[in-house]
Amino acid sequence: MTKLTLTGARIRAGTWDAVITGQAEMPRIEVLHLEMPLDGVRISDVQGRPDQWAVQVPIPAQALNDGVQTFVIRNAVTGETFGHFTMITGIAMEDDIRAEVDLLRAELDLLKRAFRRHCVETTG
Questions:
Q1: Which of 11, 20, 107, 114 is in the most buried spot, having the most CB atoms within 10 Å?
Q2: Strand pairing partners for 15?
Q3: Which pLDDT tens digit goes with each residue over 68-113?
């Protein structure tokens, strides 16, 4: 069986859109949130591309909660997970990895300025 892949994923107007490639016939997939399958998942062929399939997943309002929500995409036939998408909503979490990276970046910039200043003062 061919491995399915996702490309061109985005969220627009409450719907997650992507393209599935790697299979000539329409793939059977399921999208899970908190281990429960979502309703309304639509798959259609991409005109002129026999091995590409457009998938649309409406994001249910009850899935929009504070924190990180992960949606898992898997092959309904084999059970293999081949993708996911994540949403972060509500108040920014202090432990969010992006906040940590931003903090590290700011500290690195501070250290770079201090190092450059030290180099100028000791060489000139």
A1: 20
A2: 12, 58
A3: 889 999 999 888 898 999 888 876 665 677 767 777 888 888 888 8
Could you give the CA distance from residue 28 to residue 77 in angstroms, rounded to a whole number? 7
Q: pTM for this one?
A: 0.71
Which tokens go with 104? 């590290």
Distances in Å between the Cα of 120 and the Cα atoms of 82, 108, 109 are 52, 18, 17
CA gap 77, 25 in Å, rounded: 13
Local structure of residue 62 (DSSP, 8 states) = G
Looking at residue 31, its pLDDT comes to 96
Residue listed under structure tokens 């491995």? 3
Whether the Cβ atoms of residue 94 and residue 66 lie closer than 8 Å to each other: no
CA 19 to chain CA centroid, Å, is 14
Please tell me the predicted confidence (pLDDT) of residue 67.
80
- What number of other Cβ atoms are within 10 A of residue 56's Cβ? 14
